[in-house]
Amino acid sequence: MRIQDFDTAPLTQRQILEFTYKHSTGPVVGRFLAALKEQKQIWGQRVAGGAVVVPPLGYSEWDASTAKEWVPVADEGTVVGIARVRQPVERLHPFTEPFAYILVRLDGADTALLHVTRADWERVEIGSRVRAVWKPDGERAGSILDIAEFRLVE
Amino acid sequence: MPAFTEPPTEPIKYVDAHVWLPYDYVAGDYRAAYLRALKEKRILGSRCDRTGKVFVPPVSFSPHAFAPCSELVEVADRGTVTTFCIVNIPVIGRNLELPYVAASVALDGADISIFALIQECKPEEVRMGMRVEAVWKPDGERHGDHEDIQYFRPTGEPDAPPETYLHRL
Fold it and tell me: C-alpha distances in angstroms, B114 versus A48, B40, B44, B61, B76?
């Protein structure tokens, strides 16, 4: 028997690799997230040179020095990057309806925060002004999604 | 002025993450032929063009001789236990009563062994050289996957002498 004698039509199988885990946040991001839940306040950290880093890392990405004081920033800012997701992949993306990933430089911050806009996913542009939409009290769990999304400031 | 002077001192310690990665496994010519043959209660291997060794499941080239294996051959659905272990620890996704035996079985006509479960005997009775045969799922219930062979069971034949299987563990 040679391989040519066989029916060798393509044979495929859908497989799913799936597992859950707990991502350890660490003391810096942990406090940043706790503030989203308990204070509805977004915090950054000032680093050497004066830049305010949001979300905070605990250190400076420029010279690796330890971050200095916590600095509150606004929940409103300017869009500096957009990736529109027209056809979300089930479960691989956070939503099943079209949305856009956006990078938002919040007022008072010098770096951009990655988040999403759902309602304004088509209209958002580089330079657009957006504001956080917070989940209501009791629904915030200490996650970046305690901010449900960002929406255009009309 | 913000209402707070600093973030809460008690951090959120963990964020639950969920990894979910769907993908399409493509069997390729040899593996596709192998899987389809299982549905017909046949086990295919491939013969190395240079050494004549038979690999199960079939591979398109020999990782031993680096030569093509261009011939598909049918091997027996019975063979010899070469190595085994008795499993006493439950594994998620495998609903077998403990303890059970996971073994390597060298099928008659093959030069390497396949992984198999040994059942219908006590775990402590399993031994190297024991002769076993496949227990297939009934007709109509085989789908062309590895579960078409439910397990192997002892045939009752005399044990195979070590020189017949030690080179194909």
Answer: 61, 18, 12, 18, 12
Q: Which residues pair with A83 in a beta bridge?
A: A101
Write out chain A residues lying below 8 Å of B72, CB-based: 1-3, 5-6
CA closest to B73 among chain A residues: A1
Alpha-carbon distance of B15 to A23, in angstroms, equals 5
- Decide if B35 touches A, using CB distance below 8 A: yes
| DSSP state letter for B43 | E
Residues β-bridged to residue B149: B136
Q: Report the DSSP beta bridge partners of residue A132.
A: A150
**ipTM greater than 0.85:** no
Tokens of B35: 């899987």
Q: Which two tokens mark A97? A: 């309806």
Q: Residues with Cβ < 8 Å from B63, sequence gap 6 or more?
A: none
| Alpha-carbon Rg for chain B in angstroms | 23
Interface touch B14/A22, C-beta < 8 Å: yes
Q: What is the pLDDT along chain A (154 residues), one digit of tens a residue?
A: 565 565 667 788 888 888 888 999 999 999 999 999 999 999 999 999 999 999 999 999 899 999 989 999 999 999 999 999 999 988 888 899 999 999 999 999 999 999 999 999 999 999 999 999 999 999 999 999 999 999 999 8
A7, HSE (Cβ side, Cα atoms, 13 Å): 5
Q: Tell me the C-alpha distance between B17 and A78, whole Å.
A: 28
Which of A32, A58, A30 shows the shortest CA–CA distance to A43? Answer: A32
Query: Tokens standing for A153?
Result: 């400031």
